[in-house]
Amino acid sequence: MSTGLSELEVLRRNSLTQLRELGINPYPAEAFEINAHAADILANYERDKTAYKNISMAGRIMSRRIMGSASFVELQDSTGRIQVYLKRDDLCPDEDKTLYNTVFKKLLDLGDFIGIKGYVFTTQTGEISVHVTALTLLSKSLKPLPIVKRDEEGNIYDGFTDPEMRYRQRYVDLTVNPGFKQIFINRSKVINTMRGYFDNQGWMEVETPILQPIHGGAAARPFATHHNTLDMPLYLRIANELYLKRLIVAGFDGVYEFGKMFRNEGMDRTHNPEFTSMEIYVAYKDYIWMMAMVEECLEKVALAIHGKPVVKVGDYEINFEGPYEKLTMYESIQKYTGIDVSVMTEEEIKTVCKSLGIEIDNSMGRGKLIDELFSEKVEANLIQPTYITDYPLEMTPLAKKHRSKEGLVERFELFVMGKEIANAYSELNDPIDQRERFEDQLKLAARGDDEAMAMDDDFIRALEYGMPPTSGLGIGIDRLVMLMTDQSTIQEVLFFPQMRPEKKVKITTDEDFVNAGVPAEWVQAVRKMGINTIEELKAANPNKVFNDLGGMRKKLKLELAMPSKEEVTAWFA
Fold this sequence. Notes:
CATH topology of the largest domain: BirA Bifunctional Protein, domain 2
Number of helices: 20
Strand order of the largest sheet: 8-12-13-20-19-18-17-16
Largest sheet: 8 strands, mixed
Distance between the termini: 34 Å
């Protein structure tokens, strides 16, 4: 037997052995046919009872009540939970009652996957249930699930609620907190709605390289790797923009891609180093056209999720029905700070940033200084969907110069709830101008800006063959899903967010408990209470431990005098 197992894990492994000794394979290879699901049965049984006379379904055992020769189980499948009724003589019509008396009652546990066959009926209390006529073990669970308890009002306590544990063990989280599944169902709806909208316009979904020889398309720090066969450095893409625009050069009128991007930067409530972005490029359009397209697309997304364009986010009701408010970058800064940066030099903007307590460094050029000022003083005010337009030339090396405003580019970002959701340009298609912009980026890199773009000679060569007027857009899917599902952290909308390495739990011996102050004669009782590490002991409630000790003393029939509450409290010092 492996060391470091809890008492429950040891018991489950013993059950596993006994099942095999009975000739039952706890992990059978055969397919199990399913013709019914919990949600369908609960929704439709009363309307058509004849349709559920011979059902086959599968799921986890989430709770059970054993009452002698009959028992009730709560079975959870991919759609929800339903009550299951097992009667010994129906399950075992012959003399051999092993399947019920031994396998079901003694060797199955909460969390085990089972397959059942039977028929649906309504109990005397009016609950729709499945009467089981055949039962098959499909997978034995060797680790006990956290027990989520609910009071009479349905309030959850003792739940699996620690965020780090939930994100690290998402497979447990979504099992015992199935309500969170809806976030990811809605995430899929967001992507599918956008994809359907683009496809209906005749634009084509494509794939571009994730490993790229030059990191480009955005101002960000890349992840670097090395290809052994080619003996060359490669980068995980920070954007797919330059490859998608190559396809516009190739003659496609509209291309888009949903894909993973990777940026070797900080992590917080709205940033994950691996994230999903949608980028789309449409020929013969500009950024003004793109604003109308974004409004139409996001309204469709809101309708798909909520049935209306208004979405509740925190204390706000966000209206995704266009048109959205528009402010230029300079106007927004002046509106919320009273400062007109449009007439200021780089040094003057540095002075303003310092006076406002904004952290800057010498690597920052004029564009980045304006961006910092905007981020610190403007973004948080942009609650309803708002376009920030016409950015300084220095901030956007891939956008076309503004048709009428000197020193600006045709760009917008869409902000909602103080966060950027979308970024779009009238794309720069002048190869000579583009080379000069890249050269300016190289100068910033020389000053220490590790987010500056690299020179991409092949992309410039593509532009030299000619790219038609084009509008491009990028939308952060994770942030959009956060909005549409009213989540405050990006980790809630990612199945598997990036985490720090998991701390290995040191195996706690009886001696460790004694050294922590637990008398040797009480260590067995503490372990029986589910406390198997010093960390779990220190995290427990002293009063609860004291009360539970009394019950465990009776259960284990320990002929020991109860320690005082003060003595138990000392274990937690």
